[in-house]
Amino acid sequence: MHKKMIQSGWGFCALVASITFLLAVGLAGCKREAAQATGSEKVYRIAFASFGPDPAADVAIKGYIDGLRGEGIEEGKNLVVLRRHGSGEIAQLPAMMQSLEAQGLDLIIPMSTPGLAAAFGAVKRTPMVFVYTYDPLGAGAGKSFEEHLPHVTGVASFPPIEGTIDLIFQLFPNVRKVGTIYNASEANSVKAVGVARELFKAKGVTLEEISIAGTGEVFMGAQALVARSPDVVWVTGDNTVLQALEGVIKPVAGAKLPLILNDPEFVDRGALAGVGIGWHESGMAAGKMAARVLRGESPAGIPIVSLSQRNVVLNHAVAAKLGVVFPPDLVKEVGAGAPVSSK
Questions:
Q1: Which of 13, 41, 115, 343 pairs with 77 at a CA distance of 20 to 30 A?
Q2: How far apart are CA 285 and CA 132, in angstroms?
Q3: Would 44-157+279-306 and 161-276+310-334 be classified into the same CATH topology?
Q4: Please, is 173 exposed, middle or buried when counting C-beta atoms within 10 Å of its C-beta (0-12, 13-18, 19+)?
Q5: What is the CB neighbour count within 10 angstroms for residue 151?
């Protein structure tokens, strides 16, 4: 009996040893599979930091992510993407940038010129590859596209101001007064309006300017602008105004004035036309630059790139209300897919 108990004990020990061995083998296998799935390749954490909810910014973000994917960095595999915005107010941007800096991310993507300016005050350690920005030098990026702050680079995209003015004259040859509204705290808008002012002046056109300080002033500013009786209203890519664009559209439409934008993504809200930037292309270019930085290349050695692909959108429903006929060559340039109807 004692012998049987001993044999039984040895059998039990053998069984336990076998189970332990199998568990060890299984655990080792799981560890190997986890290492193969995650393991040798880093998972990157990046954050898009935009001015506010913005369909044009969304296009740039999509392009950026497509650019990263083309370089083998893909959301859901080896990329985690955060999306943050400053609710359309400049005053909220510094705190947002500080919060992102504290998270130990691999990359921060400031979007808009005010966003980039806020990032320079708050982000000191995390590399940045910006996009959706008119004027990076005006934001404080550096002396030139080649000589810039060591932890930042990106893609600058200035709007086609001269092409916008050409479109205005193409549609309204007798125009003598153009009105615009913008936030003078945005370096991007100051630069765009400054360029337009000189070009309009050379053509004998007066540029009536209304400056506002926040989204809450847009509607009253637009009313004041309409009261000056412009022939056309033009809005460049001013982030503050775009966040409250309906405040411009309502008085402009009420006065039966044409509205021309530098942001084609907003044309369907009630503008006549938009002459702007292909933000997807700008985003893709920035995404490819970002891949280089994520893999260890210093932004200091990567020059800022200027890229602006012309993008024109026409709103035929608004044209019909205003009695405007788009020239056939303009319609041909836009193509069949781009014209929109206003909601």
A1: 115
A2: 11
A3: yes
A4: exposed
A5: 18
Give the Å distances, CA to CA, from 223 to 19, 207, 250.
81, 16, 9
pTM of the predicted protein model: 0.84
pLDDT tens, position by position, 307-318: 998 899 999 999
Contact 192, 262 (CB under 8 A): yes
Three-state secondary structure call for residue 300:
helix
Q: What is the pLDDT of residues 228-285, one digit of tens each?
A: 999 999 999 999 999 999 999 999 999 999 999 999 999 999 999 999 999 999 999 9
Spell out the domain ranges in the chain: 44-157+279-306, 161-276+310-334
Residue closest to 241 by CA, chosen among 169, 283, 185: 185
**CA atoms of 320 and 96, how far apart (whole Å):** 43
| Topology (CATH) of 161-276+310-334 | Rossmann fold (3.40.50)
Question: What is 44-157+279-306's CATH number?
Answer: 3.40.50.2300
CA angle 122, 128, 131 (to 5 degrees): 110
